[in-house]
Write a structure and sequence with these properties.
The complex is a heterotrimer. Chain A is built from nine helices and nine strands. Chain A is an alpha/beta fold. Chain A has a seven-stranded mixed beta sheet, with helices on both faces. Chain B has a six-stranded mixed beta sheet with strand order 2-3-1-4-5-6. Chain B has one domain: Pyruvate-ferredoxin oxidoreductase, PFOR, domain III (Pyruvate-ferredoxin Oxidoreductase, domain 3, 3-Layer(aba) Sandwich). Helix content of chain B is about 45%, strand content about 20%. Chain B starts with a strand and ends with a helix. By secondary structure, chain C is an alpha/beta fold. Helices cover about 40% and strands about 20% of the residues of chain C. In chain C, the strands form three sheets. A seven-stranded mixed beta sheet of chain C has the order 3-2-4-5-7-6-12, sandwiched between helices. A five-stranded mixed beta sheet of chain C has the order 9-11-10-13-14, with helices on both faces. Chain C has a two-stranded antiparallel ribbon with strand order 1-8. In chain C, β13, α11 and β14 form a beta-alpha-beta unit. Chain C starts with 9 loop residues before the first strand and ends with a helix. Classes of the chains: A alpha/beta, B alpha/beta, C alpha/beta. The complex binds thiamine diphosphate, iron/sulfur cluster and magnesium ion. Iron/sulfur cluster binds next to α8 of chain A.
Chain lengths: ~260, ~190, ~375
């Protein structure tokens, strides 16, 4: 039987593995739709490598008609950096959770941003560790209850929610692209992701997009509460918009990438 | 049946198979049996079929999981297929009458002693309340297994739902009626 | 310890992860450091709920490297510090535990094995035997208790703290995902009411008095300049480890007196192995059972003393030969065939062991 993608599905989605495996109301599907549309529009299905982390992002290991590598928890960026360094013609996308990016994988995020690695990183911020059942993450909001902050996150003891894009924006060299989008504005999120992919293709530098996302399962919220949490609580703490764009570059040359991977 | 029973319960996420398993195993423990309950768990269990393994015995339980069950309760269409590995030559398959056709399709005729179709869903809707479907199933299991005293099961139920019963006494009634209905369905089978 | 977490004996029906928390509380653990990973998550969940009541502490770290090193820090400060992990988390933790091994730090780690290699499954295995016993760039100077039931989870969690602080080697409770998630009966108790004394702790840093003035400073290191320096340190640790083996090793046997077939298993699989003995004996096979409770140090003398009249040894484990290799090493020189029933990441039932033994021995 021939399976064809339904019209509303991005072309790069793999129809055979749909419906996808996320819980009803999960934000991952929306982020992946934005990513799928961006890949379609840029026509890069033939040379894009998709890397997914461990976390609910791992459920995407067969999500796209893209060559895909599921890595270890927090290690997706270095795996893709390794690929990109030797195959610069490929477009590499690191798809990961907030725990993977900001806790266990923070060293890789910081160092690859600092080196302006030509990778596009998409971080799904759902304010906790979803796959393991809803523990506190670096992004958990003050006072938010999770399985390991059962009495609410106490920021005196556990710090304030980590601001990923702000962190990356402050350390990445010129040419980097940094933005924060949200699943409550898919058009904008798609544009951010598209710009982040283009930035890599042009060889400008590190590209980083955080997406505010929903996890109704661990938040234990209904549809209305879910959206309100993203649009009110989360957006208030995590401002939406672009933090760095490559055009702000004033002096110096673009990094050129030669076919043997050496950079000039 | 003997004093050593292996039960598999399987159903969709919301059907409450894990709570049934927890209540049964706890009731068994309260009546002085050795009992062991383990849920299946994995990275994709959401959306997948939820399976619970329960063992009740008058001797110590040897391994957390087992292959062939004495009683298999499958509550959904997908569960009917999922429980196939646990069904042996003497296993009793219990299922809701709404999936009779699926059982026929996958297993053909198992024979009278080996299958029990119960109209639990219909009964829940018509005679009690859809939300106590799992309690009817609990009653059925207790009835079929013929091992546990109803009062121990009520006690375990009370421990789990007591705080809710305290808020709303009609809830207690509902649950006890559902338990009794299920018990009648399962008893002597 | 102001409030006793457990008074008198209490029978309970709970999950293994809960049992571990009660064990740690009973042992007087002060702080847990940890990073989420299935199947140990609920240890953190229960612990964090009880922390305010019993005046304990908890820190969720950024990963297991940090969880391991913060545990090392807690121990250096003289506290009963512990952590829990599994699979890929256990891999990351080896860096810190190798430091603990070098410096003889009494860290306590609960390992709830899951399927590997890599992220594997979140469910169950016995594949972390090599890693837990011998992980790190060292000699495996560690103490590893492999539990098989909730009662043992409770008993050996308490014992792990005591053994660690008494002998100053990193100590592990090696459990698995099944034991974590299953519910079965357990009796919890206050160890002191049972005559079990809780080993005192000792600060290795931050001691009273001004260093260099009133006392010598504590200069703790893990790096040595010369080969001989390191050699002497490791040699003296090995010597001390060897000298305490007889006080630490534990094992269990069943029906070994006249056994011709000896089945060896550890952890939860040993339950199935023990059960298989009766059914094999019913069929006329003289089977017996040996179970190492400590995998490190291994009860080698006990095993060797059992095998004189044994014709066949069968090792059953949910791994591909990790226990089997340990058994082979310890039976070097004995000419007894050793057959493995090796099922990496899979549970094992008594029936499977019985069938395997019958088929292999063509009985
Ligand atoms: C080394 C290691 N430690 C811990 C884990 C367990 N683990 C799996 S997913 C996960 C959390 C994922 O959270 P996040 O990255 O925020 O993704 P989400 O599930 O929320 O999308 C953890 C801690 C692991 N797989 N490997
Ligand atoms: S647990 Fe949360 S993040 Fe994971 S699939 Fe479900 S809703 Fe999505
Ligand atoms: Mg997350």
């Amino acid at each position: 039987m021939e399976v064809t993608a339904q019209p509303q599905m991005p072309k790069v989605w793999r129809a055979e593995t749909k419906p996808h495996k996320f819980c009803p109301g999960c934000g991952h599907g929306i982020v992946l739709k934005a990513l799928g549309k961006a890949i379609d529009e840029l026509n890069i299905q033939h040379n894009t490598i998709f890397g997914c982390d461990i976390g609910c992002s791992l459920l995407t290991w067969d999500f796209f008609n893209l060559d895909t590598i599921q890595t270890h928890h927090g290690r997706t960026i270095p795996v893709l950096v390794g690929i990109k360094r030797v195959r610069p013609e490929l477009v590499v996308v690191s798809y990961m959770g907030d725990g993977g990016a900001y806790a266990i994988g923070a060293q890789h995020l910081v160092s690859s941003a600092n080196r302006n690695e030509l990778v596009t990183v998409i971080v799904v911020n759902n304010t906790q560790y979803a796959m393991t059942g809803g523990q506190m993450a670096p992004t958990t909001l003050p006072g938010q209850k999770t399985e390991t902050s059962p009495y609410g996150r106490d920021i005196k003891l556990t710090g304030k929610p980590m601001l990923g894009p702000e962190l990356v924006a402050s350390i990445a060299p010129e040419g980097a692209y940094v933005a924060r989008g949200t699943v409550s504005n898919v058009m904008q999120l798609k544009n951010f992701i598209k710009k982040g992919l283009e930035n890599q293709i042009k060889g400008n530098g590190f590209s980083f997009i955080e997406a505010l996302s929903a996890c109704p399962t661990n938040w234990r919220t209904n549809a209305a509460e879910t959206w309100s949490f993203i649009e009110n609580e989360m957006s208030e703490y995590f401002p939406i918009g672009e933090l760095r764009t490559p055009d702000e570059k004033k002096v110096g040359e673009k990094r050129k990438v030669t076919s043997n991977g050496a950079k000039h | 049946m003997g004093q050593n029973i292996k039960i598999v319960l399987a159903g969709e996420g919301g059907q409450g198979v894990q709570s049934i398993a927890e209540i049964i195993s706890e009731a068994a423990y309260n009546s002085g049996f050795q009992s062991l309950y383990i849920p299946n768990f994995g990275v994709e269990q959401r959306g997948g079929v939820s399976v619970a393994f329960v063992q009740i015995s008058d001797q110590s339980v040897d391994a957390p999981k087992f292959i062939i069950a004495d009683i298999v309760i499958a509550l959904s269409r997908r569960a009917i297929e999922r429980v196939k590995p646990y069904i042996g030559e003497k296993t009793l398959l219990v299922y809701d009458s709404s999936v009779d056709d699926e059982v026929e399709k996958i297993y053909g005729k198992l024979g009278e002693n080996r299958q029990l179709s119960i109209p639990a869903l219909e009964m829940a809707q018509k005679e009690v309340h859809p939300r106590v479907f799992n309690i009817i199933i609990l009653g059925v299991v207790v009835g079929v297994a013929e091992l546990l005293e109803k009062k121990d099961v009520e006690q375990a139920l009370e421990r789990r739902l007591g705080h809710k019963f305290a808020q709303d006494s009609s809830l207690k009634n509902l649950n006890y009626r559902a338990l009794e209905l299920g018990y009648q369905l399962g008893q002597g089978k | 310890m102001d409030i006793k977490p457990i008074q008198d004996e209490k029978r309970a029906f709970m999950t293994g992860n809960e049992v571990i928390v009660w064990g740690a509380l009973a042992a007087g653990a002060d702080i847990m450091y940890g990073y989420p990973i299935t199947p140990q998550n609920e240890i953190m969940h229960y612990w964090t709920r009880l922390v305010p009541k019993y005046k304990k502490d908890f820190l969720q770290t950024e990963d297991e490297i940090s969880a391991g090193f913060t545990t090392v820090g807690g121990v250096l400060a003289g506290k009963r510090a512990f952590t829990a992990t599994a699979g890929p988390g256990n891999v990351l933790m080896q860096e810190a535990l190798s430091m603990a091994e070098m410096m003889r730090l009494p860290t306590v780690v609960i390992v709830t094995q899951r399927g590997g290699p890599s992220t594997g499954t979140v469910i169950y295995s016995q594949q972390e035997v090599n890693l837990t016993c011998f992980g790190g760039n060292g000699e495996g100077l560690r103490i590893v208790y492999s539990t098989s039931s909730h009662q043992e989870l409770f008993n050996y969690t308490i014992k792990a703290f005591n053994t660690a602080w008494k002998y100053r080697f990193p100590t592990f409770v090696l459990s698995d995902g099944y034991q974590s998630k299953m519910r079965e009966p357990v009796t919890i108790y206050d160890p002191e009411e049972k005559g079990i004394t809780i080993e005192p702790t000792e600060s290795l840093l931050g001691l009273p008095g001004t260093p260099g003035v009133e006392r010598d400073p504590a200069h703790l290191r893990n790096t040595y300049n010369l080969e001989d320096e390191l050699y002497n340190v490791v040699k003296s640790s090995v010597k001390e480890y060897n000298s305490i083996i007889s006080k630490i090793v534990e094992y269990d046997t069943y029906a070994v007196e006249d056994a011709k077939v000896l089945i060896i298993a550890h952890g939860v699989v040993s339950r199935a192995a023990k059960a298989a003995i009766s059914s094999l004996r019913e069929k006329g096979i003289k089977a017996g059972y040996f179970r190492p409770i400590t995998l490190r140090p291994f009860p080698d003398e006990a095993l060797r003393s059992l095998v004189d009249n044994v014709d066949h040894i069968v090792v059953a484990e949910s791994a591909y030969g990790q226990l089997e290799n340990i058994v082979k090493n310890n039976l070097y020189g004995f000419n007894i065939p050793i057959i493995g029933y090796l099922r990496p990441g899979m549970g094992i039932t008594p029936e499977e062991i019985t069938d395997f033994v019958k088929a292999e021995l063509s009985l």
